[in-house]
Automatic annotation (TrEMBL):
Domain Radical SAM core per the UniProt entry, residue ranges: 189-416
Cofactor (UniProt): [4Fe-4S] cluster
Protein name: Radical SAM protein
SMART domains documented for this protein: Elp3 (SM00729)
Keywords: Iron, Iron-sulfur, Metal-binding, Methyltransferase, S-adenosyl-L-methionine, Transferase
Domain B12-binding: 4-140
Keyword Iron-sulfur: yes
Protein species of origin: Danxiaibacter flavus
Residues passing through the membrane, by range: none
Length: 502
């Protein structure tokens, strides 16, 4: 009889198109490569992932099931399939990792079908946990795990961040045998074959609204520019990647690393994109910005958050970011022909409803000012949704105003909360439906007047038609009931970066 210790790793569906290399689960596969046999089931690439998983389980060889889980649609598929697996295969061990289970571990473990949560990076702890379970040795001292012991929930200590260059290379070739790599290299605004790569973990800042903070606690570790270049070059040479999407929370923390990478990648003639902070990049020299652009970096995503300095303080944006700096930087980016993609977070709590509303109006006016300064600035608008950061003033304020997370996974996947996950309707008690409408209607008009360049499906004529309609409203600040714009956007399937990613 074959040994029953194989590992099945599942990436629940997170995208309807533009499939990306499933980096979260691939890192976990890399961590056990050569030690345990593993397969990946990618929900993005399967019509019926539950059946695919069942077919593996029917071999009787799989004991450990790992799920990576983000909130939203991915959670919905994870819940349904995990439940099904545990009912039909109660002797499998179910391990969830990723941002959602790390933060909402109580709801996850109380579901009854998840045995362990990996809290933060799983690269060391996952193989150690499997070893312990295989050899019947204690797992209680393994760092980064959370589990139930009787009625208690036990959280083990957090591991220091791993030196990223010591991690094994990702098993792209093996992934290719399960799901052709070519399909992971999608057509985007950046290129015909866009490769998603994650070159650093964590972030050195502690913004109060950000889900990176409770897990990484202001820590950041990066792969060297040389290692990043080698990995990218491998995928370029083997599968023809011509563009890179860096999925790091904060790619540009180190000017030195960014410049080194730019020098290495420049001869490869690839287009690339990453996420950054405005105050960090304000300090980059002109020569660095010039080189970064020349090396193929065409667009950078920045967390602008708000033009209001008091709100930036409330968000604990840290660093030196200010409204004035956000505006000045948008102007500076014009010189280098780099498109700044500014993301704003509207709807933070305030003492009175009137103040909440005023802040929204302030930022709407600020966004219009940024567009006047540099019309090519891409704007992404989120509504503030709390994240459970211990000790964060903003989260405490949200709780004091009556905000509460759902207690069970079934509540999390209810239609109500699914909208919360997509940051569409935050269910925060201080935001009235009229305020949510105001934000969304402004967004509709703005997107109509300035359609995103990242939408490669919407033709020039269609964009122009929507723009014409939206111009009438944008110029005179009338945003209510923009049904005519919505209708055209729906018919022509306008792409929303805040939902569909970047
Ligand atoms: C790529 C990405 C996406 C892609 C999905 C790509 C795919 N795989 O198909 C797209 C664009 C679709 C997407 C969408 C969303 N995303 Co997203 N996404 C990311 C992003 C940028 C990278 C994820 C990644 O690959 N990381 C690289 C790997 C190596 O890191 P990792 O995931 O942390 O994995 C490590 C550990 O967490 C752990 N681990 C992870 N999984 C597992 C599994 C097991 C079994 C184990 C043992 C360990 C383990 O070990 C790994 C290695 O150390 C992250 C931010 C980030 N930089 O991580 C956000 C992020 C995960 N997304 C987030 C959110 C909220 C969303 C959305 C729900 C909302 C939104 N507006 O963005 C949507 C909707 C999702 C859906 N449709 O279901 C949040 C999650 C926050 C939270 N509280 O949980 C993040 C953190 C962004 C942020 N800062 O807000 N996303
Ligand atoms: S700088 Fe960005 S990634 Fe870092 S804590 Fe702030 S919002 Fe999160």
């Amino acid at each position: 009889m074959p040994a029953r210790n194989k590992v099945l790793l599942f990436n629940p569906r997170s995208a309807n198109f533009k499939y990306r290399v499933p980096n979260s689960i691939l890192n976990i596969a890399a961590s056990i490569e050569g030690m345990y046999d593993w397969v990946i089931v990618d929900g993005n690439r399967e019509n019926d992932p539950a059946e695919k998983i069942s077919s593996y389980l029917r071999t009787g060889e799989y004991k450990y099931i790992g799920f990576t889980v983000m909130p939203g649609p991915q959670l919905k598929q994870a819940v349904a399939i995990a439940n099904h697996i545990k009912i039909n295969n109660p002797d499998t061990v179910m391990i969830w990792g990723g941002y959602f289970p790390s933060q909402q571990y109580k709801a996850v473990l109380q579901s009854g079908y998840v045995d362990f949560v990996v809290n933060g990076p799983g690269d060391h702890c996952f193989p150690r946990l499997i070893d312990a379970l295989e050899n019947n040795t204690p797992y209680e001292l393994i760092k980064n795990i959370i589990y139930k012991s009787g009625d208690d929930i036990v959280k083990t200590a957090k591991e220091d961040l791993i030196e990223q260059d010591t991690l094994p290379s990702l098993p792209y070739d093996k992934l290719d045998t399960m799901y052709g790599m070519e399909k992971y290299l999608g057509k985007t605004y950046l290129g015909k074959k866009t490769f998603a790569y994650h070159s650093s973990i964590g972030c050195p800042f502690t913004c109060a609204f950000c889900s990176v903070v409770p897990i990484y606690e202001a820590r950041w570790k990066a792969k060297s520019a040389q290692k990043v270049y080698e990995d990218v070059k491998y995928v370029k040479d083997k599968w023809g990647a011509d563009a890179i999407e860096f999925h790091d929370n904060n790619f540009f923390v180190s000017e030195k690393r960014a410049v080194e990478f730019a020098k290495l990648i420049k001869p490869e003639k690839m287009t690339w994109w990453g996420m950054a902070r405005i105050d960090t990049m304000t300090k980059f020299s002109d020569a660095s910005l010039q080189l970064i652009r020349e090396s193929g970096c065409k667009i950078i995503f920045f967390g602008a958050e708000s033009g209001n300095d008091a709100v930036l303080k409330q968000m604990d944006k840290g660093g030196t970011q200010s409204g004035e700096q956000i505006a000045a930087f948008a102007a500076r980016m014009k010189k280098f022909d780099i498109i700044p993609e500014y993301s704003f977070v509207l709807g933070t709590p305030a003492a009175t409803a009137g103040q909440v509303d005023e802040q929204i109006d302030f930022d709407i006016a600020f966004i219009k000012k940024i567009k006047r300064i540099n019309p090519s600035t891409e704007i992404v608008i989120y509504i503030y949704t709390p994240v459970p950061t211990e000790g964060s003033g903003l989260f405490a304020e949200a709780q004091a105003k009556g905000f509460q997370f759902p207690q069970t996974l079934d509540d999390w996947i209810s239609p109500h909360w699914a909208n919360f996950d997509l940051r569409k309707n935050p269910l925060t008690p201080w935001l009235t439906p009229a305020m949510v409408d105001k934000i969304r209607n402004f967004e509709t008009v703005l997107n109509g007047y300035y359609p995103t360049v990242t939408d490669i499906r919407l033709s020039g004529i269609r964009k122009a038609a929507i723009k014409l309609l939206a111009a009438m409203r944008y110029k005179v600040n009338i945003y209510q009931y923009p049904y005519e714009i919505k209708l055209l956007q729906r018919v022509w399937k306008y792409r929303q970066p805040e939902i569909q990613g970047f």
